[in-house]
Amino acid sequence: MKGYLEDTLHSLYKSKGIHRTKPDTWNNSFPVLSDLREYFERYMANKDLSSDTKRSAGALYRKTSAIGIDGSLSYLNQDHMFDFSRDYIVINISGVDDEIKSAMYILVCGIVGSRFRTDLKKRFNALEKKN
Of 81, 84, 107, 91, whose CA–CA distance to 13 is shortest? Predict the structure, then answer.
């Protein structure tokens, strides 16, 4: 199931025009978690896929109901939730349900990583002296 999740995340980013090896695409709009859930729903209903893939999609779809549009964690489905213009960034996902924490780590790391890759002059070492 872990491999299926990773493959789905790669497909989702590509659907948004974001490619790992093309920095100029990192400014495109990032997917939100409900987009991922829509992929699970489509995959579990796709008759051309293997039964293992459909089972994985179905299991992940059921486990992620909280991140659906009407779910209790639907607030996580906002585009551009982070303000990268500040010198300090604090992202607290400690209250996120364990079932989707891995997906949140991937989403947050992708968004934060793209910010530091596109602004190479921005330093993030808090101990470094500024001149």
Answer: 107
